[in-house]
Design brief:
The complex is a heterotrimer of chains A (284), B (792) and C (182). Chain A has 284 residues and is α+β, with helices and mostly antiparallel strands. Chain A has helices at 14-24, 37-42, 78-83, 85-90, 92-100, 104-109, 112-118, 125-131, 149-152, 226-232, 239-246, 263-281, and strands at 7-9, 28-31, 50-53, 63-66, 69-73, 135-140, 143-148, 153-155, 158-159, 166-173, 178-185, 195-204, 207-216, 223-224. Chain A is built from twelve helices and 14 strands. Classes of the chains: A alpha+beta (284), B alpha+beta (792), C alpha+beta (182).
Chain lengths: 284, 792, 182
């Protein structure tokens, strides 16, 4: 298939992109890597009037360290994120999740910011961003603002981004002394997650001091498994304790039933995978 | 038991690298979609979003107004040109056979059915044109479930037919005289098992989407198509369009896989033909993948009710099979025959005294079904191999021992089965012994016991499949008796050029099988010419005049034999020439290594090449001889061939998530004499992968409205390299006895064998948890559900 | 129409394209590079894989999921230019070690997935010159093949890796001479 016709622009600065976006109106779409958008256009499930390609804005590419944070440019490819020593050192789960996306070709073109802005409930990066309390840096006509990951995702394929706003970079806190693991469960290697679990654990005196657990594809947005996190705080670092703590993983979630899996099975997987992700993050 | 005679073989048996590869690895391949002709228009086809509806109004006018659009037609616009697509296999006299027009005129009966076509200067404009077409549909009730479709008062797919039943076809060994009465076996059975197995619907998913180019020039139509069956297609175009057969040329250029999915006369081919004929310009249609998923014919989709009776010692006494086969909305080229082919395979390698088979073909509002790798035989093999495992479990016996107790021993061949076929050769003991060794059967059984003992969360299961199948389709008389519309012969031509190089024309139509290589090996040995000196031509009805194409693992056993016969004729033709040149009596000549020699005078000889040059010049030939060495031959097999083998699968099952990991897979196949071991190995690997895909990954799913939920590769999960294990393969070699090559066929064996091996392994892993079946595909969720149900 | 400048298989082209034109259709229909094929419309099958330069060097991409306008200013290598990718004469019959290995190891049957499979395998070895079986299988997760069961493809990638390293090549599959069997 071939997309319907659209106009195309490739701004070279963020300001230019924002003003172009504003001028182009509601039917305009941002093109980042295009790995989710282009198939949608090809199947003619969307017909934007204009595509604004961020591929010409070199400022949006790159990974840098900034004090307590790691800053990942929105147009940095998944492959670059997965291979980055900085990411592997300070937020290894981000590299793990990026490596689990799609396949090598998709990871070469697909971008970190594009994935987060697309907000696919089955996307891997949103739950990781949520578990790590990442901050989204958003540029708009009024300048830049930061949005916490917990506030960023609002519904299926929907974020707080305004019609004239662009995600430009993501600030990921460096969690020194934490272990972390992203576990993805899918039907075939290149498939979307049926369920994914992002877990970060800080251990203390042989036990678990603090844990963060976020779930992929257990509802319209990524969600934190707060009950699990509370049960884990201060828990013994053994598998029985983890098993008990993770029993509540699916509580409050609203997973869908679709051709890939039933809601019931997703709920079950959330428990098992939470335990496994937490155990791996805790080094058990 | 047959034993291969010793003979020198310069080419046959060697792992020749393929001739085909040179163009395929460099991107110089001639796929149909690569063809561009001057003035060629691109077609796009509008497809029904409804599973069952009357077309109230349809207006293609707005599409015609768009820039770049040259023409647009609805089914009504082409109604007087079109005839029903053919079904060549009316399996019963009273089979219900509804018309199937290439473009729907009044009613659509499955999502994806073609309703209109746009011809435009380029692909994108043609697609834009589709969006401008206005269609009003009046929805009709949708029938999807086969059992519901057969119930009294069911809504009808074809209201004018008054029924959703196409046919019921029965084989009864008591009536056929090939065995006893199954009712008696059921009555007196010491053990009786009854099972219901579901063969899920599959999509062939050949990698090259179908594509067709039609070029009308004068009164001749040249049709290039990504098809397995150029010869049959030509005949059917002639029969359904009124264009005389000699005015139709069909070419199958390079074709990117078929697996039965391109064994069809398709609506798209006929739509392209009719548009080209109407507007007098060349046209091309290449389907998109999402279009292909809903419009190509699907495979499998059967419900199998199977009863197996046995004595308590494990001896099988009877087999009763009742089958519901989903035809989809229409009958394709061989749709009704697919489950009937399976009828002869349920008894498999076993000596079963009584057998009854009954199949009912059912219409539903789904895409048509038809041949898919194995076509009827994988379904049969699955059911029998699954239920033999269940019998072993019921009796507390090792499943291998139950098989040994019932299979045909190697010294009992030839053996006429309860289904009436005569298996000419086989050695199940040898293949099984080799496979169990390759697999490490006993060691894996020990590990399984240990895991069961310790209550490991990851359980180990061992699955066995001792399969056979029927290849070399097919003896024409048998096909006639089964009411198939054509014969099963195959044809070959061998031409020796003046320089001694050889052109071979085959009626087979390869699409990945490597015929150019294997046929060259055969001819090189026969005529004593170098492998490199043979060129194999195929797939163009102008050069390959006679042929019945490639499917049903027939090409080597039938087409290869025709090739050998043609070579023998060439050698015979050369004999008189050689005798004349050697000034010897024909009676004194002997042929070896490509040379006719005078017996006892090894230095005096004439090669085939020398004879070819002599007939070319014709300066000095014996009186009355025709100056020509070339020969045609057509072979009609007297029997099928029967590959067999033993496949063993060790599967680890995560009992928490239901995840299945194939830990080890060993296969020993006996495909008769091997022409090219490299090609055979490749066919086995690919076949196993495709069978594993049915067992674990793939299923076409419709929602309750008849929308295909698995309409792209996102949801129809074809496994990648990362999802499959390596396979340990080996062979035994018991030649087929029906023809000089001794080859049996290998194209479908892996697919037929592997599905039950994998599912048997999954079930075996979970048997201690009380599980005795998992419906295919055994996705993690299905496995987990089976465990949950067993625990309740 | 948008003007693009793109180098394909070592030749620079300047063309006007519709923005909606996919890179693969630009290659096939405007440049006649039909060696790169289209197998699906959801970026799953990988048959259309080519190499393209980007912000971090040259990498494999699925040319059916890249717009031709996105290739503006970049270099693209297809199966047709692979043998000469790193310089050398544009000469018929030259094969890249990966093409040679696919032939030697019988890593293709119908051959439709082959151009994409070879391109991805080349990319894989550029990142990891001596991969394990598992790394090869994972690295090819975005390329579907329906014929081979992948086993000989894995074998071919090993063979190409060995050839590229100058190591002993994989033992070629042995000939089998038919003889009596039990």
């Amino acid at each position: 298939m071939i997309p319907t016709s659209f106009d195309y622009t490739r701004p070279s600065t963020v300001d230019e992109a924002v003003s172009t976006l504003r001028a182009a109106g509601e039917d305009a779409k941002i093109l980042a890597g295009g790995q989710s958008l282009i198939p949608v256009l090809r199947l003619r499930l969307a017909a934007p009037s204009t595509l604004i390609d961020l591929g010409g804005i070199s400022d949006l590419v790159g990974i840098r360290s900034d004090g307590d944070s790691l800053v990942i440019g929105a147009m940095t490819s998944h492959a670059e994120v997965a291979a980055s020593d900085l990411v592997r050192q300070h937020a290894p789960m981000v590299a793990e999740a990026a490596q689990s996306i799609g396949d090598p070709q998709v990871r070469h073109m697909g971008t970190f910011g594009g994935s987060l802005s697309h907000a696919d409930p089955a996307g891997d990066l949103p739950s990781v961003a949520l578990a790590l309390d990442a901050a989204m840096v958003v540029a708009g006509p009024e300048g830049r603002r930061e949005v916490a990951a917990g506030d960023f995702f609002t519904d299926h394929f929907t974020t707080v981004l305004g019609a004239d706003e662009i995600l430009v970079e993501v600030r990921v806190p460096k969690l020194a002394g934490w272990g972390m693991r992203y576990v993805k469960f899918n039907r075939v290697a290149q498939a979307w997650a049926i369920v994914g679990v992002a877990a970060a654990v800080r251990r203390d005196n042989g036990g678990i001091a603090e844990a963060r657990v976020a779930l992929t594809n257990m509802g319209p947005t990524p969600i934190r498994a707060r009950g699990v996190e509370q049960a884990l705080a201060g828990a013994d670092a053994d598998l029985d304790a983890l098993r008990a703590a993770c029993e509540t993983a699916a509580e409050g979630a609203s997973p869908s039933s679709d051709v890939t899996a039933s809601a019931e099975y997703r709920g079950h997987l959330a428990k098992v995978l939470s335990r496994r992700a937490v155990a791996a993050a805790a080094g058990l | 038991m047959t034993v291969t005679e010793e003979r020198p073989a310069a080419e046959v048996g060697h792992a020749r690298r393929r001739k085909e590869d040179a163009r395929l690895i460099t991107g110089r391949t001639m796929w149909t979609d690569n063809i561009t002709l001057p003035g060629m228009l691109h077609l796009a086809i509008l497809r029904s979003p409804m599973a069952h509806a009357r077309i109230a109004t349809i207006d293609v006018g707005p599409a015609r107004e768009l820039p770049g659009v040259i023409a647009a037609f609805s089914g009504r616009d082409l109604a007087e040109d079109m005839a029903s697509l053919p079904c060549a296999w009316p399996v019963t006299e009273d089979m219900v056979h509804p018309d199937h027009l290439p473009l729907a005129v009044d009613e659509v009966r499955h999502t994806g059915e073609a309703v209109a076509v746009v011809a435009a200067r380029d692909r994108a404009s043609a697609l834009d044109g589709l969006e401008a077409i206005e269609v009003d549909y009046d929805e009709l009730p949708v029938v999807l479930d086969m059992e519901a479709a057969l119930a009294d008062g069911a809504d009808l797919v074809h209201a004018d037919k008054g029924t959703n039943k196409s046919f019921t076809w029965v084989f009864d060994s008591a009536e056929a005289g090939s065995g006893g009465n199954v009712a008696d076996a059921l009555d007196g059975a010491e053990v009786k098992l009854s099972r219901r197995y579901v063969q899920q619907r599959l999509i062939p998913a050949y990698m090259e989407p179908r594509s067709v180019v039609v070029d009308p020039t004068g009164d001749v139509f040249t049709v290039w198509s990504a098809t397995q069956i150029p010869h049959i297609l030509r005949l059917m175009i002639a029969m359904t369009t009124g264009t005389p057969e000699h005015k139709v040329r069909v070419v199958a250029p390079d074709v990117g896989g078929g697996f039965g999915g391109k064994l069809q006369v398709t609506p798209e081919e006929l739509i392209a033909f009719h548009v080209a004929r109407r507007i007098g310009k060349p046209v091309k249609h290449t389907e998109t993948r999402s279009e292909s998923m809903q419009a190509t014919h699907h495979g499998r989709d059967q419900i199998q009710f199977i009863d197996l009776t046995a004595r308590r010692d494990g001896t099988v006494t009877g087999l009763n099979v009742r089958l519901l086969a989903n035809m989809g909305a229409y009958l394709g080229l061989v749709t009704p025959g697919v489950p009937i082919l399976g009828a002869f395979m349920y008894n498999a390698i076993y000596k079963i005294p009584a057998y009854r088979f009954e199949c009912t073909g059912v219409f539903t509002n789904t895409a048509w079904t038809d041949a898919y790798r194995g076509a009827g035989r994988p379904e049969a093999t699955y059911a029998i191999e699954r239920i033999v495992d269940e019998l072993a479990a019921e009796l507390g016996l090792d499943p291998m021992e139950v098989r040994r107790k019932n299979w045909i021993n190697h010294d009992e061949f030839p053996f006429t089965t309860v289904a009436g076929l005569t298996y000419d050769s086989g050695n199940y003991e040898a293949a099984t012994d080799k496979a169990t060794q390759l697999f490490g059967y006993d060691e894996l059984r020990r590990e399984q016991a240990a895991r069961r003992e310790s209550g490991d969360l990851v359980q180990l299961g061992i699955g066995i499949s001792t399969y056979t199948e029927m290849c070399g389709l097919a003896p024409s008389r048998v096909l006639g008796a089964l009411r198939y519309g054509a014969g099963g012969w195959e044809s070959a031509t061998v031409r020796v050029l003046p320089t001694g190089k050889v052109e071979v024309v085959t009626g087979t139509s390869p699409h990945g099988q490597g015929h150019e290589t294997a046929w060259s090996q055969i001819v090189a040995d026969q005529l004593g010419v170098p492998f490199e000196d043979v060129e194999v031509l195929h797939g163009d009805t102008r050069t390959s005049v006679r042929g019945l194409d490639t499917y049903g693992s027939r090409s080597l056993a039938v087409g290869g034999t025709a090739l050998v016969k043609a070579c023998q004729k060439v050698i015979k033709n050369a004999k008189r020439i050689a005798a004349h040149m050697l000034e010897a009596s024909e009676d004194d000549l002997e042929f070896a290594d490509g040379t006719w020699r005078v017996r006892g005078t090894p230095d005096a000889g004439k090669t085939i090449a020398e004879c070819a040059l002599a007939v070319f010049t014709s300066h000095d030939l014996p009186d009355g001889i025709e100056p020509n060495l070339d020969a045609d031959a057509t072979h009609d097999p007297e029997n099928f061939s029967f590959p067999h083998g033993t496949h063993l699968c060790a599967a680890e099952v995560d009992t928490e998530t239901g995840w299945v990991n194939i830990r080890k897979y060993a296969a020993v196949d006996d495909v008769g004499r091997v022409i090219n071991p490299l090609i055979v190995e490749g066919q086995v690997h690919g076949g196993i992968a495709q069978g594993v895909a049915q067992a674990l990954f793939e299923e076409a799913v419709y929602d309750e409205s008849g929308n295909l939920m698995t309409g792209t590769f996102v949801d129809y999960t074809v496994p990648s390299a990362a999802d499959l294990p390596a396979f340990d393969t080996d062979r035994t070699e018991t030649p087929a006895t029906g023809h000089p090559l001794g080859a049996k066929g290998v194209g479908e064996a892996g697919t037929i064998a592997s599905t039950p091996a994998v599912v048997n392994a999954v079930v075996d892993a979970l048997r201690p948890l009380g599980v005795n079946d998992v419906r295919m595909p055994c996705t993690p969720e299905r496995v987990w559900q089976a465990i949950q149900e067993a625990r309740r | 129409m948008t003007r693009i400048s793109v180098t394909v298989d070592g030749v620079q082209y300047q063309d006007d394209v519709e923005p909606r034109t996919l890179l693969v259709h630009y290659l096939r229909e405007q440049l006649g590079k039909v060696g790169t094929v289209v197998g699906c419309d959801t970026s799953n099958c990988g048959a259309c894989t080519v190499m393209m330069t980007g912000t971090s060097g040259r990498h494999s991409v699925k040319s059916c999921t890249v717009l031709a306008v996105q290739a503006d200013g970049r270099e693209v290598v297809t199966i047709e230019g692979l043998a000469d990718m790193n310089g050398g004469a544009d000469r018929a019959g030259r094969l890249h070690p990966m093409q040679q290995a696919f032939h030697e190891q019988h890593a293709l049957q119908c051959g439709f997935c082959t151009p994409g499979m070879i391109m991805e395998a080349v990319d894989l070895l550029e990142a990891n010159p001596d991969p394990t079986d598992e790394q090869i299988r994972e690295g090819l997760e975005g390329n579907l093949c329906r014929c081979t069961g992948y086993q000989n493809i894995v074998r071919a990638v090993h063979a190409a890796a060995a050839a590229t390293r100058g190591a002993e090549p994989e033992p070629a599959p042995e000939d089998v001479v038919p003889g009596p069997q039990p």
